[in-house]
Amino acid sequence: MTIDKRPRYPMTCSQCGKAAWATLSVFQEDFGMPDCGHATCPACGTFLHLTFVPEKKAFETESWDDYLKRICDENRDTT
Ligand SMILES: [Zn+2]
Question: Does 77 have pLDDT greater than 80?
Fold first, then answer.
């Protein structure tokens, strides 16, 4: 049995406002990619995209659908 010693940081569901805790994913912690986390809200079940904000030591959340729309919009702006 392994104990998860990774630090946990607060997140708030963007859809229902439920506060929860999330650990930095392997990608976020080891590869320095703060914009690639995801989690499922324990309250409303929304699949959330997490962005770790080091200044706040917290995660910002948005629904995965919003995230995909935003990425598409950003790609459209740069081309
Ligand atoms: Zn929720």
Answer: no
Q: How far is the CA of 22 from the centre of ligand 1 (A)?
A: 13
- Scanning the chain, the segments in alpha helix (DSSP H) are 26-30, 64-78
Cα separation, 14 vs 63, in Å, equals 7
Q: 53 is written with which tokens?
A: 């904000």
The DSSP symbol for 31 reads: S
Instruction: Answer whether 10's CB lies under 8 Å from 21's CB.
Output: yes
Question: Hunting for tokens 């080891």 — which residue is that?
Answer: 30
Can you give the pTM of this predicted structure? Answer: 0.75
Neighbours of ion ligand 1 (CB under 5 A): 13, 15-16, 18, 41, 43-44, 46
Interval between CA 67 and ligand 1 midpoint (Å): 15
